[in-house]
Amino acid sequence: MIQLRPMTSSEYPAYCDYFIDDYSREIAENYGHSMDRAIELANQDLLRSFPNGLETNDHELLCIESDSELIGYLWHSINTSDKSTFIYDFFIFSSSRNHGYGKSAISALESQLKSIGIEQIKLRVAYQNQRALKLYQEVGFSISGYNMSKKLGTS
């Protein structure tokens, strides 16, 4: 059974290490930045959302567990004015994939959100991440737009 629980301050540094590594690779791949610049941007995003570590009310970092074993992370932020939440990061460790944990974690989040009156979940999926896109579509998400970018030449 999947459980979502708030991340502890002792778990936060490991999350930061994972997030900076993962997100900086995505930034470099999607936007053509050098890895040094991508790492800098990933650090800035994390610091902007968690300026005091886990001491914030706007964003929530959750640990995903199965049988009390940590199998992933989920970062989201609730917007009460439009009764929605936005998922910033959703990650199942590679050793725990292909067991239905992703679907179960989304279902657990939905239950938690419904109980407090949240009516919609929003997120962004990188174009190359077909695995995530397939999961989200299987659990009922629909495509609501496209992010696009164009790298300008320096001539």
In short:
GO terms for molecular function: acyltransferase activity, transferring groups other than amino-acyl groups. This protein is of the alpha+beta class. Helices cover 38% and strands 23% of the residues.
Characteristic terms for this protein:
155 residues, alpha+beta, N-acetyltransferase_domain, Aminopeptidase, Acyl_CoA_acyltransferase, GNAT family N-acetyltransferase, 4 helices, five-stranded mixed sheet
Describe the protein:
It is a single chain. This protein is an alpha+beta fold. The chain is built from 4 helices and 5 strands. It has a 5-stranded mixed sheet with strand order 1-2-3-4-5, covered by helices on one side. It has one domain: Gcn5-related N-acetyltransferase (GNAT) (Aminopeptidase, 3-Layer(aba) Sandwich).
